[in-house]
Amino acid sequence: MSVMPGTPRIKPLPENEWDTVLSAVASTTGPLNIFTTLGRHPDLFKAWIGFGSMLLLKGTLPPRDRELAILRTAHLSGCAYEWGHHVRIGGEAGLSGTEIAALAAGLDDHPWAPGDRAVVAAADELNATGTLGDATWSALAERFDERGLIELVILIGHYRMLAYGLNALRVQPEESL
Questions:
Q1: What is the pTM of this model?
Q2: In 3-state terms, what secondary structure has residue 128?
């Protein structure tokens, strides 16, 4: 993944302009560009941060499965910002360096375990077609309960939507990435 070309289209909000919600988030995560940029729209940010936090921190999906889906979606979306942050989070969730690298390659270029392959294939299909075929759905249904199936589809869609915003706004990855 490469850094988005050019400069940010909307600069991150300076700390002296943060509201209480952005201040609280930044006190936990640090002043990440995603938050300080989206924080320029306080009502949207407040609604989004609750939803995004639920998916990332309080969801029913195992962290490894969540990160397989997010990293594959980041790759397919060409979103350097998502990719950079989730490489670290994916490693913490148990993905190996080889697996993370394979998420930026073809589905058949890595010997995925069947359940992992189903998650990666789901990201591929949703990103390509906006839906899931019956074979992928059946493979996912062997791994996840009803809540997990709903959450996986919504998670992939959320990170695709977020990639659109990050890419279009040219939110730059932090220098530490």
A1: 0.94
A2: helix
Q: Under a CB-based contact definition with an 8 Å cutoff, are residues 74 and 163 in contact?
A: yes
Residue limits of CATH 1.20.1290.10 in the chain:
63-169
Burial category of 128 from C-beta neighbours within 10 Å (exposed 0-12, middle 13-18, buried 19 and up):
exposed
Q: Rounded to a whole number, what is the distance in angstroms from the first to the last CA of the chain?
A: 11
The CATH classification number of 63-169 equals 1.20.1290.10
d(CA 155, CA 52): 9
pLDDT tens by residue, 105-134:
999 999 999 999 999 999 999 999 999 999
pLDDT of residue 177: 56
Q: What is the DSSP letter of 30?
A: -
**Separation between Cα atoms, residue 67 and residue 61, nearest integer Å:** 10
Residue linked to tokens 């999906």: 61
